[in-house]
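Researcher: Here's the sequence for the chain we discussed earlier.
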Amino acid sequence: MPLVLDPTAQDLLFREARTANTFTDEPVTEEQMQAIYDLVKYGPTSMNQSPLRITLVRSAEARERLVQHMSKGNQPKTATAPLVAILSADNEFHQEMPQLFPHAPQAKDTVFADRGLRESQAELNASLQAAYFIIGVRAAGLAAGPMTGCDFEGVRKEFLDDDHTPLMVVNIGNPGPDAWFPRLPRLSYEQVVTTV
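Model: Thanks. This is the structure I predict for it:
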């Protein structure tokens, strides 16, 4: 077999993993979330920017505030998931560059001096990290329900600030009854890959 990763792990992370639409009420612990982050933080980003920021919505009051910004079809999912994460891009990620890119600490003030460049880099690299986050949730044996059906500006005003761009909302927990929609088709290797 050309893949080194155990087939059971391949199934857990990809083949059998699905976007959950219902969840049990079993809580997702802080220790689980710490373990997920401690795994996915090693995923690569350009110049080790690491611009993803995670806002965990745990309290009932915060949950109510978030649900009002979700699209109608996503409201019940977000209202009942044991834990919800708002994933955002930190447009001021460059402030951490001396720590994250120590061999070129001046990158903070040279490469990333322009706000427009920072915003585009933050969105690209935080989106990449969001994908790692979803895989990390699956690696913890939990189900993830990533969603972009929401009022992003409302989410930003409610939970973030002008220096953070919301990317998605992810419901997290153990899958509940009828959690899965039928799996949709995927493109074949030949449809996606071109060799030049």
